[in-house]
Design a protein that fits this description.
By secondary structure, this protein is α/β, with parallel strands linked by helices. It has helices at residues 5-27, 30-40, 53-67, 77-80, 107-115, 130-134, 156-176, 180-186, 190-195, 199-202, 218-228, 248-254, 264-267, 281-289, 312-317; strands at residues 46-50, 72-75, 93-97, 119-124, 137-140, 211-213, 232-236, 242-247, 269-270, 274-275, 297-302, 305-311. The strands form three sheets. The protein has a five-stranded parallel β-sheet with strand order 2-1-3-4-5, with helices on both faces. A four-stranded mixed β-sheet has the order 6-7-8-9. Strands 10-11-12 form a three-stranded mixed β-sheet. The longest helix has 23 residues, at 5-27. The chain starts with a helix and ends with a helix.
Length: 321
C-alpha cells in the first residue's frame, strides 16, 4: 500500500529541516562561546530584534531568555526608528536576526549600536551581508535552502534560528547554574507554577499545625483535630520530635466508649511518613498516593522536627496533580 501523499510530504519537510540543523551543527565554532561571553557578562539586557518571520522568532527567543535567567526583551525595528531606540543603553547587547542579512528595517538599530558602542551579535546565513559586516560577532545560520517546495517561505531558516536561540538560552542557564527554583520564580502562574510548587509553599505551619505532646490523652487530640480541621494530629516528644500521628482513619479503627481516655501514644501510628518542606508538592502527592494506605496528610520535617503539614486538598487547590 502506497504511503499517503500528505504523510510523505510531511516526512520530506521534516527531513529537510533536520538536514538544515545538521549543517548548522557542523558549523558551530568558538564564535558561539564568544557570543555567550558577551551575553553572560552583559550588565544590562539582551535585546533581540528582527523583521517579518525573523521578528516572530526573535520574540520567542527573548521570551525564552527572560524566563531562564537572562533579562531580555524584543524591539521591533520599525518602532525602534520611531523612539524605541531610547530603550537601548550602553550596557546592553543586541542580537539582530536576518536570514539574508539585508533587512533595511534594521539599519537604524545597527547604526545606533555602532554609534553608542553597544555590543551587536548577528544571526544570519550571510556573514558578508550588511548585518554581518556591521556586527561584532556572527552566529552563522545554515544556507541550505527552505523546506518550502518553492524555496521561498521561511521554514528551515526560521527553525534553525529558533534552535540557535534555544542553544544560547540553555548554555546561559548552564553557565549561571539556573535552577528549578529560579525557573519557578519566573513562572508563578499556570501549570508550570503548580508543578514547581514546593511543600513549603502550601503547608500549614506554626499555630496552624495540629500537634499534641506524648503525655496527652485522646480527648486532647480530638480537641486539637477539631480546632485545626485537617483530619489528623501529630504527636511530639519532650524534644519536639515527631514520633507519631493520629488520623481520622485511626479514630474509626479505635472507636470505643473508652477512646477519649486512652493515651495518644497507644492510638497513634508510629514513625509516620514525612517529607521535606523543600520537596516539590508533586512529590508529596506521589507519596500520599503510594503509601499503600492512601493517606491525605504529610508532616514536613527538618530532621524529626515538624515544620508544617500539607494536605492533599492543598495540592489540589494549587493545581498540583
Amino acid at each position: 500500500m502506497s504511503e499517503n501523499k500528505d504523510i510523505k510530504a510531511a516526512k520530506e519537510t521534516i527531513d529537510r529541516e533536520i538536514a538544515a540543523l545538521r549543517i548548522m551543527e557542523s558549523m558551530l565554532d568558538e564564535t558561539l562561546s564568544k557570543a555567550l561571553d558577551m551575553m553572560e557578562n552583559c550588565k544590562g539586557r539582551v535585546i533581540i530584534t528582527g523583521m517579518g518571520k525573523s521578528g516572530h522568532i526573535a520574540r520567542k527567543i527573548a521570551a525564552t531568555l527572560a524566563s531562564t535567567g537572562t533579562p531580555s526583551f524584543f524591539i521591533h525595528p520599525g518602532e525602534a526608528s520611531h523612539g524605541d531606540l531610547g530603550m537601548l543603553t550602553n550596557d546592553d547587547v543586541v542580537v539582530a536576526i536576518s536570514n539574508g542579512g539585508e533587512s533595511k528595517e534594521l539599519s537604524d538599530i545597527l547604526l545606533y549600536c555602532k554609534r553608542h558602542a553597544i555590543g551587536l551579535i548577528a544571526m544570519t546565513k550571510n556573514p558578508q551581508s550588511t548585518l554581518g559586516q556591521t556586527s561584532d560577532l556572527v552566529l552563522k545560520l545554515p544556507n541550505s535552502g527552505e523546506a518550502c517546495p518553492l524555496g521561498l517561505a521561511p521554514t528551515s531558516s526560521t527553525t534553525a534560528t529558533l534552535v540557535m536561540g534555544d542553544i544560547l538560552a540553555i548554555a546561559l542557564m548552564e553557565r549561571r547554574g539556573f535552577s528549578a527554583t529560579d525557573y519557578k520564580q519566573r513562572h508563578p502562574g499556570g501549570k508550570l507554577g503548580a508543578i514547581l510548587c514546593k511543600v513549603a509553599d502550601l503547608m500549614h505551619s506554626g499555630d496552624e499545625m495540629p500537634l499534641v505532646t506524648e503525655e496527652a490523652i485522646m480527648q486532647d487530640a480530638l480537641l486539637e483535630m477539631s480546632a485545626k480541621m485537617l483530619g489528623c494530629v501529630g504527636i511530639v516528644d519532650k524534644k519536639g520530635d515527631l514520633i507519631g500521628m493520629i488520623t481520622d482513619g485511626d479514630l474509626r479503627r479505635w472507636m470505643s466508649p473508652s477512646l477519649i481516655t486512652e493515651k495518644v501514644t497507644t492510638v497513634m501510628t508510629k514513625n509516620p511518613k514525612t517529607i521535606s518542606p523543600e520537596a516539590l508538592a508533586v512529590e508529596a502527592v506521589w507519596t500520599m498516593n503510594n503509601t499503600g494506605k492512601g493517606i491525605t496528610n504529610l508532616f514536613a520535617v527538618d530532621g524529626k522536627k515538624p515544620l508544617g503539614l500539607i494536605h492533599i486538598h492543598d495540592c489540589l487547590r494549587a493545581g498540583v496533580v
